Amino acid sequence: LYLGSAASANEAALDKLAITHVVSVVERNLQPPFGREHLLCQIPDSDDADLAPVLRETAPFIEAALRGGGRVLVHCERGASRSVSVVCAHLMR
User: Fold this and answer.
1) Active-site residue, selected from the candidate residues 22, 76, 86, 87
2) pLDDT of res. 19
3) What pLDDT score does 17 carry?
4) CB burial class (10 A; 0-12, 13-18, 19+) of residue 91?
5) Which domains does the chain have, with CATH numbers?
6) Which residues sit opposite 40 in a β-bridge?
7) Where is the Tyrosine specific protein phosphatases domain (predicted)?
8) Taking phi first (over 0 means left), then psi (-120 to 50 degrees means alpha), and beta for anything else, what does residue 84 get?
9) Within its chain, how far is the Cα of 49 from the centroid?
10) 76 an active-site residue?
11) 38-63 pLDDT, tens per residue?
12) pLDDT per residue over 6-39, tens digit each?
């Protein structure tokens, strides 16, 4: 399970780490990374954004990927808030 910013979701980095699944927790629409399973969770980067629906959506995706031997990158724009919350929630399960 990897954590990063939008910049870390580039093709070269994904290839180097053999990432098979990407979770994008961002406000904007993104193109899915080529050749990888992708979950796009569009949510604003604000203090009052409700992360509960995102956590319910990402949990089974991450769990299934890891259970199947996949490598998952969870990222938001800066890798400092939304993606960290998703990874922490997964680790606390």
Assistant:
1) 76
2) 98
3) 97
4) exposed
5) 2-92 (3.90.190.10)
6) 24
7) 49-93
8) alpha
9) 17
10) yes
11) 999 999 988 889 999 999 999 999 99
12) 999 999 999 999 999 999 999 988 888 889 999 9
